[in-house]
User: Fold these one by one.
Assistant:
Number 1:
Amino acid sequence: MSKKHKKSRDASREPHFAVVLSDTDNDLRAVQYALNIVGLCNKQGEWRKDIRGIRVIHTGDWLNKWDPSLEMIDYFIHLERTAPKGCGLTILNGNHELEILHRVEQGIYSHLGEKRVKFIRGRDLLHVFGKTLFLHGYPTLHLLRFLLQIREEKKELNVFNERVRKAFYEGDHALFRKEEGKVLMGNIKKARLYYQERSHDGEKRGVKLSRLLKELDINTVVHGHRPNILVQKDETIEMETPGIRIVNNDNQPKKSLLGAAIVDRKGEVYFVNTREMYWQGGEEKFKKMIRDILKIRP
């Protein structure tokens, strides 16, 4: 079999859609409700066996850093283990999970147990799906230069996670290069101001960021970290990041009860929240619309 034919066959197996959760903060009910609404799981939170071609992505802060839920960790371990063929689960670590790991190393949260700690430590910091970059916070120039270096080595962008895992979770420094970690995580407090500032060469950071993302063949960024008021916020700021769509998917699902996004490989985004449900005329009509997009049978 030729390499070209094998590559095309492997590509056909890749998920066509991502269902994206953000900042669920220990709330198992919100996770399972969203997965049921979009048609991936039944009301008990178990995968439907007829699902194909969909990846679930969580952009971080899936745990509460002050009281991490054993039930939440165990559910994601189970969901990852039981994913149907052609589907998958990608859980990213946010600042909450990194803080938990930091405390584990200090002898706190020993009740989590080795298996759960290993699962948290094994999560990624970003994921690239089609033309979309998923991460916990806003993308920084520092991060994108790192990704561009990987691309220039002719490697997949998700190789980033392997390198960061070695740098932050292994060896003498073991995770606690905290300032560097914040830069890579995109810990930007005021995104508009950050992207408006000019670099030493006089070019605005947002313009430079847009150019770097386009070089990486990315047109959409989906993140969490900064809470919105009960609905997702589409932060397409043309003046700051021309040609790049930046979506804040943190609509505080613990309060709104429903928060998710659907993203296809081209970077098209559909929101799953209570306002969208209301506009569609209620839960049943909304379910039908979402499942039509995902090509899921009722």
Number 2:
Amino acid sequence: MSTTIDWSDRQIWKTSAKNTFWCLLGCAIGDLGTILFFQLTLIPFPLIAIMILAIINGLITSIILETVILIRQNFPIKEALKTALGMSLISMISMEIMMNLTDYLLTGGAILTWWVVPIMLIVGFLTPWPYNYWRLKKFGLNCH
């Protein structure tokens, strides 16, 4: 039994990119929405608390989006939620941490500008993509 992974499978890269994109979309809705809320309302809240709340909200919205996608693919509601919750939290958490770290390093944290959001999204996508490829290639785990 081989323990090496073939990293040249274009179809797996394509499928894992699709999965990573949906995860990114779900995470970005909650994450960027939270940062934008605090940026617009000027509610005094500690920077680290905003960033943690953004990560938590990103995880929640990603799980909700994945659940809705699965329901639309005729999964029963309970199975859809179970599958969404069983997706790789490693992937989602790494995505969230890197998006927020990018924001922090480029703007000082919890500040959305026209130029930082695309960078955050690119970093957020690229961080878990190889892991998602590996997981799909090794275990055949695909949530779509």
Number 3:
Amino acid sequence: MTNLAGKVALVTGSTSGIGLGIARKLAANGAHVLLNGFGDVDGALALVREATVSASQKVAHHGADMSRAAEIEQMMGYCADALGPADVLVNNAGIQHVAPVEEFSPEKWDQILAINLSSTFHTTRLALPSMRARNWGRIVNVASVHGLVASAQKAAYVAAKHGVIGFTKVTALETARTGITCNAICPGWVLTPLVQKQVEARAALQHTSLEDARLGLLSEKQPSAEFVTPDDLADLVLFLCSDAGRQIRGAAWNMDGGWTAQ
């Protein structure tokens, strides 16, 4: 167990999937949590509140559009007012679009870079002053295995996630002599609702079972033939937040079932 009692955690893109799993784990270890995202906000709030271990813990939500710098600034201010300045910042918000480079929509390119990369810059620049004042902070950027290697037809996503890893290293160097750490985690295939839809679409297209579609998807990239789970990633975030992680700085930690070992 990592004791985060009294700490404030802000997790972007946390109303479902990986972000929600991380938010629940942080709450289960005592943190106040600010959620961000769209969709089933009430359901996400209920799940995170259910995970808390103290009646004094606070759980809130802000619906900032992570492609808009002004809304991100409003979210950071709301966090400070409602819960306190963020001690733990998890930059998880992201979107995807698939197309060949010559057919890639410029609007989609700009949107993916704004949400997947620029939002990480905006939250970090706004969180760092208060972290420096307290000489403690944990910044975890959810990159991707696509921050380390590429796949065809994912130009904007791969570019953004490579950028997240570069930004992580710069932030780690600039905070190296403080109690603040900054690291990236790089998941492979994770069974989120979005990926489940891909499995279902593959099964329909190939006229096969969901299990065969799942194994087919995994076998193309992930040697373990098993999905990474949001809970797996949440445990890694928790470790990076612990005292044991204090000298892990600027890492791009892959959790990918062997994807990048090939």
Number 4:
Amino acid sequence: MSLEFNDIQKRKPIYKIKAPLKEHLKQYSRYAELPVSYDDLCEYTDLVSITDDSGVPTLWYAVLYERDLLEELQEKLTTVYEILVADGDDIPYLSISSIEFCSFGNSKPFRIKVKNEINDNHDYFYIKKADASRVYGLELEEIFSPDKVSFVVGGNTMVVEHIVGIPCDEFVLKNENVKIENRLRFAKEFVKFNERCFTRLLGDMRAYNFIIEITQDFDNVQYRLRPIDFDQQNYEGRKSIYLPQYYKDNIALVELAQELCNKETAAQYKREEHVAMRKRFLAAKHRTRSLIRKMKKDIVSSKDHIEVLRSDLHLHHNDPRFLEVNTMAEILTLHLEAQLGIKIFN
């Protein structure tokens, strides 16, 4: 079975960040008064399509503003970057090189390129509409993943750091019919990534929604797979949507894992990931409980999706308790406990 795009909600609603979640963000230094909003960046005069090296249009557009507004935005965006990476401390010699816009997907982000004028070193960050789903996804990434993503929320605006890596769809296309180095490690990482997404119920991990981070070790190449889109955190109904192995886009990775990992080996990799996630939970109990308590008071999905997912997970875990719950937060709690052998709430 392979999932197609139509299996995913094309237009997931943006859920407002309510007071309880806002308090959680403040407690963990994820909330700030921002000098510029997403709506401010929408005051552009024109968009110019950006092409790749072959002259093919990409999904990104260069954003044009009136001169006075551009100068004001550049100054404020520099401050936003300082808030994101330095908790508001002044970073000298920064300038904004470009502002770009992507009309694809739910978030419709602005990508900001910031440059250090002394050494020409540059970085990116993104400004998006604030969405409770994405906040919950990023917070669960902070808790259960080996990777961290810096972000800050202010009002209806969300600022997220750039996650460095190669989009998986581009990597697969580039290496088609090529045997990459350390293929077993790559296959192992996909098995563990697949299990991590399922355990924390992060959906829509099609190949362009996660990246491959490549590290040159002393004797070989190492890989890590990382999600870059978090707005499908425990939103959809079907269990398979939370398993990257079922996406048509990921078939090359599935075939590699099937070639190199037998069932016993794959099961061992899954156990390793469960142990690691359990240890991360034990180191972040208070944060996890705070987050899930806020989610219980929130609306992050539809009743139809909740009914489907609790039914699917009831069958998966053979646990009738799933049929007794009525929120995605309760489903997530039971699922985490079943997967990791933990107790979220005493």
